[in-house]
């Protein structure tokens, strides 16, 4: 059983102009697909051939297998990232809104913190909204292929701050990309589902 390469949850032009169809076609169709293909090639014929992507990530991390970790974690991160955005973004409500207010003071304050963290993140990586075991929210950062698919935090949404996520549309001005995404494209419904479930999102099966 191979790790799936999931379709985008929207049309490739649905996030324009913040993220163009060309960027999504390249980012999803080439970068994400390459990570999935390399993960599948690496586990073929091994004990991990039929494992979930989360298990592959954890085993690669435990074994210090950087190549497998990088490709498997990036496969997971990208699928999570596509779902973290939506062309029809609605404001958070209910338990998630209450948790945001408790941790950050307001949704606007959280958005500003995500933008600041993303703009200040050195080199490649990811910025996350996450919840700990008791439901308290925090903004987290991981470098390169670092992921919250493993570990003690429950990721609710993520922002990709690798250059390939924004360079075609915003050149080297990462703050413009972050502003465009966080002020109109965050999928708060997805974040709310992850918060309410209380466990780490599962990568889609084939």
From TrEMBL:
SUPFAM superfamilies: Fe,Mn superoxide dismutase (SOD), C-terminal domain (SSF54719), Fe,Mn superoxide dismutase (SOD), N-terminal domain (SSF46609). It comes from Croceicoccus mobilis. Its EC number is 1.15.1.1. Residues 92-193 form the Manganese/iron superoxide dismutase C-terminal domain. This is Superoxide dismutase. Mn(2+) binds at residues 27, 78, 160, 164. Destroys radicals which are normally produced within the cells and which are toxic to biological systems. Belongs to the iron/manganese superoxide dismutase family. It is an enzyme of class 1 (oxidoreductase). GO terms for molecular function: metal ion binding; superoxide dismutase activity. Gene3D superfamilies: Fe,Mn superoxide dismutase (SOD) domain, Iron/manganese superoxide dismutase, C-terminal domain.
């Amino acid at each position: 059983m191979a790790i799936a390469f999931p379709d985008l949850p929207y049309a490739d032009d649905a996030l324009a102009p913040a993220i163009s169809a060309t960027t999504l076609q390249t980012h999803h169709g080439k970068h994400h697909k390459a990570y999935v293909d390399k993960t599948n090639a690496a586990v073929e014929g091994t004990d991990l051939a039929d494992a979930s992507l989360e298990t592959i990530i954890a085993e690669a991390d435990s074994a210090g297998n950087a190549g497998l970790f990088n490709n498997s974690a990036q496969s997971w991160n990208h699928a999570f990232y596509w779902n973290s955005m939506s062309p029809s973004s609605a404001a958070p409500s209910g338990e998630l809104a209450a948790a945001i207010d408790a941790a950050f003071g307001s949704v606007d304050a959280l958005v500003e913190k995500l933008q600041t963290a993303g703009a200040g993140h050195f080199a490649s990586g990811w910025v996350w909204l996450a919840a700990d075991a008791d439901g308290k929210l925090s903004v987290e950062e991981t470098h390169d292929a670092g992921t919250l698919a493993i570990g003690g935090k429950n990721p609710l949404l993520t922002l990709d701050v690798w250059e390939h996520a924004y360079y075609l549309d915003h050149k080297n001005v990462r703050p413009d990309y972050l502003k465009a995404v966080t002020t109109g494209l965050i999928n708060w419904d997805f974040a709310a589902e992850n918060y309410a479930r209380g466990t780490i999102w599962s990568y889609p099966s084939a």
